[in-house]
Design a protein that fits this description.
The complex is a heterodimer of chains A (293) and B (307). Chain A has 293 residues and is an all-alpha fold. Chain A contains 11 helices and no strands. Chain A has a single domain, classed as MetI-like (MetI-like fold), CATH 1.10.3720.10. Chain A is globular. Chain B contains 12 helices and 2 strands; from the N terminus they run ααββαααααααααα. Classes of the chains: A mainly alpha (293), B mainly alpha (307).
Chain lengths: 293, 307
């Protein structure tokens, strides 16, 4: 390190003043970030609280803002989350198990690793384009909830793999060695020693990945297009809409009432997200305590 | 004797079953990992194939040299420049917010903050990171834009400035958490050595810790800005839908991502030129973000100081 810190030429008080100015700048930065978050939440709550009514939750969309609701979008979101979880969890956790427990250290493994982190950085709208041409047109799934779920699965797959790997990695080596010493083969070791310990961490990863999917609108816009849905999807081949798209639809209308409605929808979306994240945090805390024992 | 034989048989068949099960599972998890590669291949193949269709009708020279983007209104013209300019304008504005504040927050968290404040700030940043982008779009349109209008009288409702500023706030947690990781990985012995030479806390942070973590910090900026380029709903809602070759932040513009959404919303006829144009824009978007992400990861690997 070639930096020279000259103690004699500048007085200590001046250097301390510079330090004080710097910490003030840092605090200002923290304050701006904090103010940003607060003004966002306050704005949403002020604009939206009077629109959070049973109508908003249980009604279908409507031209009349006071009767419009999120019901189709809410059910669509939950339906899609369920399907997405069914598709992603086996693949994501499977890939994580392979990379941590099975994979030999060779070029293929490191290629998969680099590829996974690259996939995590691909813009979500690109996944929408992929889903649109592969699932909607090529596999002829139309603009169905299944096409949407498959697209969303691809989007959250890299996130799930990364978090599951972290969870599996944090299982102490001694657990594996003990299981191998008892004569277990690789799969028995994974199933009986590694996965039970890694389970809370994997579950946290699943919840966080799904909560990302809930708020994601861009790829779903490409799949569903502009829809006016006044029914609840029943089969996986039905057309659907999700909450962020319904909110987007309301935001893009010029009338103030619909802006208020959008804020009401955002409140419900944030409540859903916040409760999912709290579950994840609670699980994580429990998990951390246990591993310290 | 006969009983023992039977036991042996059972044990053998059990062992065989375990062995087969192990092989099958090994194959299954291996193919799960292989799916990730399949996804990449299909992204590239799909984007390339669709945009080849586009470039067979529109010359690639027009795409890169024309300065007008008018995919539907006649006379049609497909010059990508306005969309790229819009995208980079928003990214540059966002970097003015995210880079200094992200760095300040990270230095504060890593070097200055006592533990109890850290325990409050980190979850706050996580909440900020978990808010859907559509909410940021709503915030930009209904809060930041009216606020900015007090300053800039002639500002258009949909404008790059408001979207860029909110985008900056949105990527602060992303930039600051990566930067903080880089700062934390600087060993304490360096700090102690600096203090021992009589440096103040500020001098230690800026002249010792930040230079030591520089590769990680630069990577955090690159990855954060790449995220700003790929961001979609915020700019669709707040920045407008006017492809506009300008660097005036208070004008309405359109980003590459917002164009894709605009066209996808309209259910453009499958196979038409305007349908294929979203893939041409998509592949450029993919290439730009991929290059930036690769650069970011490379900077970390290449310039990391190993202590």
């Amino acid at each position: 390190m070639s930096t020279k810190i000259d103690i004699n030429s500048s007085s200590l008080s001046r250097r301390k003043l510079i330090g004080f100015l710097f910490i003030s700048f840092c605090l200002l930065g923290v304050l701006v970030a904090f103010m940003g978050l607060m003004s966002l939440l306050v704005q949403v709550i002020i604009q939206g609280y009077e629109w959070v009514t049973p109508n908003l939750i249980f009604n279908y969309p409507s031209r009349h803002p006071e009767q419009a609701g999120l019901w189709a979008a809410l059910i669509g979101t939950l339906y899609m989350m369920g399907l997405t979880a069914l598709i992603t969890v086996p693949v994501g956790v499977g890939a994580a198990i392979y990379l941590e427990e099975y994979a030999p250290k060779n070029w293929f493994t490191s290629f998969v690793e680099i590829n996974t982190s690259n996939l995590a950085g691909v813009p979500s709208i690109v996944y929408g384009l992929l889903g649109l041409s592969i699932f909607v047109y090529f596999l002829k799934l139309e603009r169905s909830i299944l096409a949407g779920s498959l697209t969303m699965s691809l989007l959250i797959l890299p996130v799930l793999i990364l978090t599951s790997r972290e969870a599996i990695k944090s299982v102490p080596k001694a657990h594996r060695e003990a299981a191998f010493a008892l004569g277990g083969d690789r799969w028995q070791v994974v199933r009986m020693a590694v996965l039970p310990t890694a389970f809370p961490g994997i579950l946290t990863g699943i919840i966080l990945a799904l909560s990302r999917a809930i708020g994601e609108a861009a790829p779903m816009v490409a799949i569903t297009a502009l829809v006016y849905i006044t029914f609840v999807p029943v089969t996986p081949m039905d057309r659907f809409t999700v909450m962020p798209i319904q909110i987007f639809n309301w935001v893009s209308r010029p009338q103030d009432e619909f802006r208020g409605l959008a804020a009401g929808g955002i409140i419900i979306l944030l409540i859903l997200l916040l409760s999912m994240n709290s579950i994840a945090v609670i699980l994580r805390n429990k998990y951390q305590v246990r591993s310290e024992e | 004797m006969i009983k023992d034989d039977k036991n042996l048989k059972v044990r053998r068949s059990h062992r065989l079953r375990v062995k087969i099960e192990g092989k099958v599972i090994g194959f299954l998890v291996g193919s799960a990992a292989f799916i990730t590669i399949l996804v990449t291949i299909s992204i590239v193949w799909n984007l390339a194939q669709q945009s080849l269709g586009f470039f067979s009708e529109i010359s690639i020279i027009e795409f890169f040299s024309s300065t007008r983007w008018s995919p539907i209104l006649i006379p049609r013209e497909f010059g990508i420049a306005p969309l790229v300019a819009g995208t980079f304008l928003v990214m540059i504005i966002s970097s003015f917010v995210a880079v200094p504040i992200g760095l300040a927050v990270a230095i504060f968290l890593a070097e200055y903050a006592p533990n109890n404040i850290r325990k409050i700030l980190r979850p706050m940043l996580e909440v900020l990171a978990g808010i859907p982008t559509i909410v940021y779009g709503y915030f930009a349109l209904t809060f930041v834009t009216p606020l900015l209008k007090l300053v800039f009288d002639d500002m258009i409702i949909f404008n790059a400035l408001s979207a860029g500023l909110v985008m900056g706030i949105m990527i602060i947690p992303f930039v600051s958490s990566l930067t903080e990781d880089a700062l934390i990985s600087v060993p304490n012995s360096l700090r102690q050595a600096s203090y021992a030479l009589g440096a103040t806390k500020f001098e230690t942070s800026i002249k010792i810790v930040v230079p030591a973590a520089l590769s990680g910090i630069v990577a955090a900026f690159i990855l954060g800005l790449s995220r700003a380029i790929g961001e979609t709903m915020l700019v669709t809602i707040a920045a407008g839908a006017t492809p506009n070759l300008t660097f005036n932040p208070i004008e309405s513009i359109q980003t590459m991502t917002a164009y894709i959404v605009q066209l996808a919303l309209g259910e453009a006829a499958h196979g038409s030129v305007e349908y294929q144009s979203i893939y041409a824009v998509g592949i450029l978007l993919f290439i730009i973000t991929f290059a930036m992400n690769t650069l970011g990861h490379w900077v970390v690997r290449r310039w990391r100081n190993v202590y």
